[in-house]
Every structure is written in C-alpha cells, then in structure tokens.
Amino acid sequence: MGIKERKQxxxxxxxxxxxxxxxxIVAEEGIDSLxxxxxxxxxxxxxxxxxxxFENKEDIMQHLLVGKYREVVDQFRAVExxxxxxxxxxxxFLKKYIKWAMKNREIYxxxxxxxxxGVLEYTSVLCRGAVEKRPxxxxxxxxxxxLSKEPLPEKHLNGEPEAGDEHMEIKAQAVWxxxxxxxxxxxxxxxxxxxxxxxxxxxxELITDGLRGGx
Length: 215
What we know:
Blueprint: H1 3-29, H2 36-43, H3 47-53, H4 57-82, H5 86-103, H6 105-112, H7 117-123, H8 130-133, H9 135-148, H10 164-188, H11 193-211
Helix pairs in contact: 1-2, 1-4, 1-6, 2-3, 4-5, 4-7, 4-9, 5-6, 5-9, 5-10, 5-11, 9-10, 10-11
C-alpha cells in the first residue's frame, strides 16, 4: 500500500470513528444532544481534530443520516437482486427493514421521531413526490405497482383524479408508515423477540394480502 492510500485509509478510519461516536450519542441521548464537544470527549480527541474531518456538527449529522439511509437502500437492492417475484421482494424487504430498525432501535427511534427541519430533510417520506426524492420509496412504489396490478380508480382521495404513479406513491407511503408504526410500538413496549416475530409475520401477511386484493 502506497503512502497516499495509507493516508486515505487512516482518514476514513478516523471519520468512521467520529461517526460511530456520534451514532452512539444519538442512540443514548437523542439527536438534539449531539455536539462536537461530546463526540470529542467520547473518543478522547480534541474538538480541533474533529473539525479537521468535518466542518461542523451539522456536517457530522448529515453524514450519519445519509449513512443510515444508505443501509436501508442497500438492503432493498440486495433483496431485488436475489428475487424476481414482487411479493417475495416486498416480504423480504419489510422483514429486513423491520429487523434492522429493531437492531438499531434507539438510534432509529431518536432519529425518526425528531421533528427538526434539518433531520426531516433526510427522514421525511410522506411528502408528495417522495418517489423521486427518496430512492427507497421509489423502489417500494415499483414493487407495490407490480404486486397490486389493479385498475386505477377514476377518482381518489378528495374526489380529484389521481395519476397512476402518484396512486402507487401513496400506497408505498402507507406501507412504510404501517411498518414504521409497528417498529415504534415494539420499541416503546419493549416487545420480546418471540412476539416480535409473530407481529412482523402478521404485518407482512396483512400488507401483501391487501395489495393482492385479499387473493
């Protein structure tokens, strides 16, 4: 390994150390408690060293949120690569997503329940046009479209015509919101693993049956 490659590896390792410390603080205290000083104290670095790798706290938070979101997208892509059947893709993704969220329960809860503008910029999924802004929602909407194969209603929601892609976006958002609600309640109620498995299986069955029209 050359000098340039070694320096880059060392830089990446230190950045990851800082991000891991930031993630631990968010999990323990919430994202609003994150500060450069707390990160520095945790890893026994001076704040000046941290500023050498990140511009400020917001830069650290951005990289942390983008990294977590990338984990979700990567899981979806891995499921798509290994499966062709849309129902199997949806089942496997929902299962992986919920289990991933439960494995990272504290940081998931503290990030996803935060309503600050800076965090919502990366976590909001219910806005109109989310399929374009959020790759995971876009992939989910495509799977929902392939699975449901239903004729689009002439009128939808408030009585106005709803475009096909927007209709599928709403469905994808509803699927995500349902999974999110299940995750949050299991975290809050500290549900044991055996019951988690039953709830996850029931949730997935309900979603897939509904999209297939109960067939």
